[in-house]
Write a structure and sequence with these properties.
Length: about 325
């Protein structure tokens, strides 16, 4: 074969390979799969903005410095606003440290092996592919990087989540989550990112400062079918009659945990992309609803309930009102 013929053949192969790669990237599941596999395997450092909305209105925002070093070492520090600056989360050697200098508290959590987390996320992605609608929306520029844009909907067409994934390194550069009315309820996005960072020595080491309170978080509880959990807890679950569009009760992933010295049912609900939890235990408490962060606690019918997760205030109220002991 002549040199010109060889060049033409090589060009033809390159065209086929490029076309195949582009076709793969049109597959939203493949993009999300690559983003899962990239977590903890790519070195980078950057600045990220996180914004929380209620009923379409911004209610809170923070700036974070994010540093990641393979394999599976992460440091996230809040830099603004001043009231939250210095709050830090460090993950290394299967341990997560969360330190809040304003409350002088450290929470230590033992994490499962990274490969277990990846397998679980890939299984969750399979369920998303089976029960949700996914759309590849082309590419956009985030933090001066070209990103694939993927949108996830319920089967009824309600948007749930939108992701922007770096087209080279597969790091998620931006994420939006939506409420039941299709309004953005949270947005997290990098304003700049560097894939050739230089990390100061010891940046991923953490020792609790002297004098702070250290709390050891509980290990993940055993999951089981609802009937088995009810038998172990000694009472029946009170399930909500209303769920935000796309959510369903995960009746094979119920757990029994200890809260305030009492057995409590941990009831999870998922739309395939996000999960919220309802905790139920015997006992009474203040009649007024207690709100704290992303949770509300109340008492009714001889039980105390806590609703926790990524729901809007309106959604939480509707779920709460539909639980009738």
């Amino acid at each position: 074969m002549s040199r010109l013929g060889r060049l033409a053949a090589i060009a033809g192969v390159a065209t086929v390979v490029t076309s195949f790669a582009l076709a793969q990237m049109d597959d939203p599941l493949e993009v999300l799969r690559r983003s899962i596999l990239a977590r903890g395997t790519v070195d980078f450092s950057g600045m990220r903005t996180v914004v929380i909305f209620e009923a379409g209105e911004k209610v809170r925002g923070v700036e974070q410095q994010v540093q990641c070093q393979a394999p599976h070492r992460t440091r996230i520090m809040v830099t603004a606003p001043e009231a939250e600056a210095g709050t830090v989360c460090v993950i290394a050697d299967q341990v997560q440290w969360e330190y809040d200098p304003h409350t002088q508290r450290v929470v230590r959590t033992q994490l499962p092996p990274a490969e277990h987390i990846v397998r679980q996320r890939l299984r969750d992605l399979e369920r998303i592919g089976e029960h949700m609608r996914l759309q590849y929306c082309g590419t956009e520029t985030i933090a001066a990087r070209t990103a694939h844009v993927i949108k996830v909907y319920t089967q009824q067409g309600v948007p749930v989540k939108k992701s922007w994934v770096d087209g080279v390194h597969w790091v998620t550069l931006k994420t939006q989550r939506f409420d039941a009315q299709g309004r953005v309820k949270s947005s997290a996005y990098f304003t700049r990112i560097n894939y050739a960072p230089s990390f100061p020595p010891g940046i991923f080491d953490f020792q609790p400062p002297a004098g702070v309170t250290v709390i050891d978080a509980a290990r993940a509880p055993e999951r089981m079918p609802l009937a088995q959990a009810e038998q172990r807890a000694g009472f029946q679950a009170m399930l909500p009659e209303y769920l935000p569009p796309g959510y369903s009760f995960q009746n094979d992933r119920v757990a029994v945990i200890q809260l305030g010295g009492e057995a409590a049912l941990w009831l999870p609900f998922s739309n395939g992309a996000e999960t919220f939890s309802l905790f139920q235990r015997p006992g009474t408490g203040p009649r007024d609803t207690l709100r704290r962060g992303r949770s509300i606690t109340w008492q009714a019918g001889g039980y105390r309930f806590t609703l926790l997760g990524p729901l809007s205030a309106d959604e939480m109220q509707q779920v709460k009102a539909s639980i009738r002991p």
